[in-house]
Amino acid sequence: MSKTEHTHRHSHEKEVTLVSYVMDMSGSMHSVADATVSGYNEFVGNLKKDDNEYLLGLTRFNTGETIVQEPIAIDMIETLTTNEYRPNHMTPLIDAAYAAIKAAEKVAKKYDGDVRVQIVIQTDGMENASQHTTHQLNTLIKSKMKKDWQFLFLGADQDAWAQAAGWGIDKQHTISCTNKPENVRAVFAAASCGTQSYATADSAAAGGIAVLDSLDCSVGVSRDLRDDDDDVDKQINKAKKEEGK
Description:
17% strand; 7 helices; 40% helix; alpha/beta
């Protein structure tokens, strides 16, 4: 290969997208355990079929155990099983998100900043067992967003909009739905679309399509997963007031 050919190819290399997935494994997820496992495996499968280069890490958590897997090449990711995903105990959500961000930060440093980073947080419950505070997580998230990291919040059976807003995540990157198997699978499909859009955007700052818009590109996903925009804004403003106290 000539030097000219090498330079031409290098200039068109695709930027690596690092995805760190935070998966609630508390007791309330038991009713959708199978849908969570299958949905996650489909999420991984969709990224493997994509032409983009991905690193993927998974953090599963409850008060009994928090398992943080550092992001590795997507092709090395094995199928998640129901033996590995056993919902139980309470929800140290902030601690898990914090740990996942730090794990992603460690791997991202190896790329000298030449990597896109997306943190996906999936939960069906409110924080109830963490040592880190909401303020600490909010500060960490905002510092990463200044570096064009993207955060997706996928919440079920809770005030997802307010919780995400309290952490600094905007409503365009938040999904709220009832905790039913069909909705869980739909949310995973939407997250997959959102991740692929983020990876292919002209720049990390552009961020790709909003995750709510990615609902439209997922087969069988209904717009009914959206909340009323006015109601969402009221919940978000309430969360911001609470944060400022």
